[in-house]
Amino acid sequence: MKPAGDETHPSGEESSDKSLQATGDGVHQLLNDGKYSDFIVKCGDRDWRIHRAIVCSRSSYFKKMCEGQSKVLSLGFPLDFFDTLRYCTQEVEQGFITFEGEDPAHIEEMLMFLYTMRYPQKPFRDGTASDMVLDAYMYAIADRYGLPKLQTEARRAFEARLPLHYTDPTFMEAVKVAYDSTPQTDRGLRDMIMGVVWGNRSVMLVKEHVQECVMGSEGLKHDLLMELFATPGVVGYKKKERAKKITV
């Protein structure tokens, strides 16, 4: 028998997360059958009957849309950022929102997370390079639609898979998504990517598929150039504060 006061208790946040996950299966059924729904999400040829009480309590984007506080998908980003990323048309007063230009599969994964609070992927280290592409998409979607927990989980998955799959050509597809779908100031995935690409530059930068990705991404070229000038012995070297890098 344990002495009184020897018990350990989970923090409020941990307890809340466990409670949400414990009821996830039952709540997920509400998304599947749409029972008692009061809102519709549309994307491409798909639609989902959802529940405002669930999605608005877990996403700042849905909360703003349903409360009529915002008519434009901004969330603090400059509008020219969304010229390339995509807009979302709002028809909140009519009881639905249409996500224009998003992949319906990604929206479905996002909604599944909102209902279950579980990351929509297999165990992190059991994944493939293709899973890293989806991780990057989920990270970006979480950023756009105000889902910090989903963004954290997507980053953790990406980081866990990185040492296993960075040599796979498909990894560069994940790199492209990370650089094309997030603001330049967001270093969540970019610092990890640079840690691997620059840390293994003698092997990676001679590969054709890596060179093609670099040439097609202004952000990746910029980061590589900054690393170049921060390397001792290079003309123009300038010491800089380095973010924590991941080398494999």
Question: Briefly, what is this?
Answer:
The chain is α+β, with helices and mostly antiparallel strands and 248 residues long.
List the helices and strands and how they pair.
Blueprint: H1 12-22, H2 24-33, E1 39-43, E2 46-50, H3 52-58, H4 60-66, H5 79-85, E3 88-91, E4 96-99, H6 104-116, H7 129-144, H8 148-165, H9 171-180, H10 190-199, H11 201-204, H12 208-215, H13 218-229
Parallel strand pairs: 1-4
Antiparallel strand pairs: 1-2, 3-4
Helix pairs in contact: 2-6, 3-4, 6-7, 7-8, 7-9
Describe the structure.
This protein is an alpha+beta fold. 54% of the residues lie in helices and 7% in strands. It contains 13 helices and four strands. The protein has helices spanning 12-22, 24-33, 52-58, 60-66, 79-85, 104-116, 129-144, 148-165, 171-180, 190-199, 201-204, 208-215, 218-229; strands at residues 39-43, 46-50, 88-91, 96-99. The protein has a four-stranded mixed beta sheet with strand order 2-1-4-3. Helix 2 (24-33) crosses helix 6 (104-116) and helix 7 (129-144) packs parallel to helix 9. The radius of gyration is 21 Å and the shape is elongated. Mean pLDDT is 79; it is low at 1-8, 69-87 and 241-247.
Attribute tags:
single chain, 248 residues, alpha+beta, four-stranded mixed sheet, 13 helices, 54% helix, disordered N terminus
Q: Work out the helicity level.
A: 40-55%
> Pairing-aware structural class of the strands and helices?
alpha+beta
If you average the pLDDT, what whole number results?
Answer: 79
* Uncertain segments: 1-8, 69-87, 241-247
Number of strands: 4
Content of β-strand: 5-15%
